[in-house]
């Protein structure tokens, strides 16, 4: 029987998981931005965001195996003068996607936003993906399309 759970983590905890590199590699191959720019964790920025108190990290586990993650940043948006919770990363390894672990991580976005008194949540999803369908069914409204263009790629 599959046992899934989600728990809050610190940045220093998440980088200790032995399979984090494997998850990030899979995330980068599925994520168009990762395909274009690669994936390299900037520990200094994550540590600074955590020190500022604006970073939230949750890990998703199936039978004790680290199988996915949610990373959000909550800050005031200058042109709304309101605080928003932005999903920086949301990922569940492909072999764990039928376990409802992703749904549990998504539900934590709402929890984070409520605890931080955010006016709203900003969450992007790949076009025509299962994630896009799931978040629309969960009450998220399509508002923008995100475009990417390489200007300078310093490797």
N/C terminus separation: 44 Å
Roughly how many Å is the radius of gyration? Answer: 16 Å
> Which structural class do the helices and strands define?
alpha+beta
Quick one: biggest sheet?
A: 5 strands, mixed
Walk across the major sheet and give the strand order.
1-2-3-4-5
Global shape:
globular
Tally of alpha and pi helices: 6
Report the helical percentage. Answer: 25-40%
Instruction: Report the sheet-strand fraction.
Output: 25-35%
The overall strand count is 5
- Please write the string of helix (H) and strand (E) elements: EHHHHEEEHEH
**Oligomeric composition of the shown chains:** single chain
Task: Report the mean per-residue pLDDT as an integer.
Answer: 91
Describe the structure.
With 155 residues, the chain is an alpha+beta fold. Helix content is 35%, strand content 26%. It is built from six helices and five strands. Strand 4 (82-92), helix 5 (101-115) and strand 5 (120-122) form a beta-alpha-beta unit.
Brief synopsis:
With 155 residues, the protein is α+β, with helices and mostly antiparallel strands.
